[in-house]
Amino acid sequence: MITTARARFVRVSARKARLVLDQIRGKAVGEALATLEFTPRAAARLIEKVLRSAVANAEHNHQVRNLDDLRVVRAIADGGPSTKRVQPRAMGRAFFVKHRTSHLTIAVSDETHGRPPLTRPRHWRVRTPQAVPAAAPAAAPAQAPAARAAKAPARTAAARGSRPRKGKEKK
Fold first, then answer.
1. How far is the C-alpha of 42 from the C-alpha of 102, rounded, in Å?
2. What is residue 46's predicted lDDT score, i.e. its pLDDT?
3. CA pair distance 16, 127, nearest whole angstrom
4. Theoretical Cys-Cys bridge with 75: which of 15, 18, 21, 108, CB 3.0 to 4.6 Å?
5. Radius of gyration over alpha carbons of the chain, in Å?
6. Per-residue confidence at 159, pLDDT binned at 50, 70, 90?
7. Which residues are bridge partners to 107 per DSSP?
8. Half-sphere exposure of 9 (CA within 13 A, CB side)
9. What's the predicted TM-score (pTM) here?
């Protein structure tokens, strides 16, 4: 059973949180908590709280008793709204500062179906091009370079309407 926990409007940028989430995605919960404990980033403390919340949700909502079976199957950091502030600078100037926020989502599961862990929502997946059927008609063969050159008219500087380069005299 997949169980999720979400922390919204967290005061860390999504880009910095993704660096930490990439380290725990697909790992067992115990291993992920140990990794977060020794990760020297501010986002690791926030992600650890969300992971512990997801484990508590699995225990309470789905009566998962064996926590050793839980794995992190989804770990996402989406960008949230930014608060805009003005920083006064010298000579009456003003610099604008954006304090970024993010929405952290962690899902844990005790199911092992041999499926790879989900890394992002399904609508973000890159679609692969469809295979071309064997009976597709072949395209016309490309013309040889000499044949193309014979068809194209000779283009001179006068025909192009260009002027001589500056500093060069016309002979």
1. 13
2. 97
3. 27
4. 21
5. 29
6. low
7. 4, 74
8. 1
9. 0.65
* Section 50-65 average pLDDT: 93
Helix H, strand E, coil C: the string for the chain is CEEEEEEEEECCCHHHHHHHHHHHCCCEHHHHHHHHHCCCCHHHHHHHHHHHHHHHHHHHHHCCCCHHHCEEEEEEEEECCCEEEEEECHHHCEEEEEECCEEEEEEEECCCCCCCCCCCCHHHCCCCCCCCCCCCCCCCCCCCHHHHHHHCCCCCHHHHCCCCCCCCCCC
Q: Long-range contacts for 83-91 (Cβ within 8 Å, ≥24 apart)?
A: none
Cβ neighbours around 42 below 10 Å, total: 13
- Tell me which residue of 102, 100, 4, 84 sits closest to 46, measured CA to CA: 102
Using the Cα atoms of residue 96, residue 99, residue 103 and residue 106 in order, give the sign of their dihedral: positive
Interatomic CA distance for residues 148 and 100, integer angstroms: 56
**Which tokens in the block code for residue 104?**
């952290």
Residue 86 pairs with which residues in a beta bridge?
Answer: 96
Residue with the two structure tokens 């225990």: 59
Which tokens in the block code for residue 84? Answer: 């805009």
Angle between helices 42-62 and 29-37 (to 10 degrees): 160
Q: Which residues pair with 87 in a beta bridge?
A: 95
